[in-house]
């Protein structure tokens, strides 16, 4: 190789070396920022656990579930046995223990009484949300609270069906009569939908509504409350009383007792308010 060719080649190698070194330096300057971004990914949203009440099942939360999932929340609506307040709360508590991370726990109707007991001592429950729900204090029953103020017309609409108990005795299941269901439970829901709800309703044992609460998690856990002003099951006055006593963040809405079906948008907003305020997501 002659001298001129050698010098030209050496220059090209030197230029490539300089460019490579500059690129490496640029990448090294960028990499810490990239690493920082990776280490500061958004925190996972809390899991929303939804507990239905009497005369309904988990499908009554379907519209709420759809909206929560769209907004990125993990959500689950386990079955509430509706057999007895203590046993129902124990069942829900066992489910809560299977959920990893923070929980926003919401209850509708009698489901409110259940979450009030189930959340006791569960450190992952960051917020309680009462949707047209009972929030009893120790010693109070759902039946007592529904009769505390005038306005409930539930009693005359009920049909009683006896069922055998494990100890050989007899219990009583309560159903809302099919021809009364729309007006009593879901007056602002289309009749074609409320007719299906009536046919598939889950009965509640009468003893569950009569059983006194043995705890009240709302005394130590922040709570939110959606009061339904057209409610014929739990009078709005009773709902307000329980919300004020619990120092809940309260929203009122013109809706029937079946607000999870008729106004899932409003229900979702209240649940997400609780999630953002307590968990930050």
Layout of strands and helices, then pairs:
Blueprint: H1 3-39, E1 47-51, H2 62-70, E2 75-76, H3 85-96, E3 103-108, H4 110-118, E4 125-131, H5 142-146, E5 158-164, E6 170-176, H6 178-185, H7 191-200, E7 204-205, H8 206-210, E8 223-228, H9 236-245, E9 249-253, H10 259-262, H11 264-278
Parallel strand pairs: 1-2, 1-3, 3-4, 4-8, 8-9
Antiparallel strand pairs: 5-6, 6-7
In the CATH hierarchy, the third-tier topology is known as Rossmann fold
Under the CATH scheme, which class? Alpha Beta
Cα separation of the termini: 70 Å
Sketch the major β-sheet: 6 strands, parallel
Shape: globular
Radius of gyration: 28 Å
Trace the largest sheet across and list its strands.
2-1-3-4-8-9
Number of strands: 9
Any idea how many domains? 1
Keywords: Hydrolase, Plasmid, Signal
InterPro entries: AB_hydrolase_1, AB_hydrolase_fold, Sec-Metab_Biosynth_Hydrolase
Domain AB hydrolase-1: 48-268
Organism: Streptomyces tendae
Structural account:
By secondary structure, this protein is an alpha/beta fold. The chain is 44% helix and 17% strand. It has a single domain (47-278), classed as Rossmann fold, CATH 3.40.50. It has helices at 3-39, 62-70, 85-96, 110-118, 142-146, 178-185, 191-200, 206-210, 236-245, 259-262, 264-278, and strands spanning 47-51, 75-76, 103-108, 125-131, 158-164, 170-176, 204-205, 223-228, 249-253. The strands form two sheets. Strands 2-1-3-4-8-9 form a six-stranded parallel β-sheet, sandwiched between helices. Helix 2 (62-70) crosses helix 11 (264-278) and helix 3 packs across helix 4. The chain is globular.
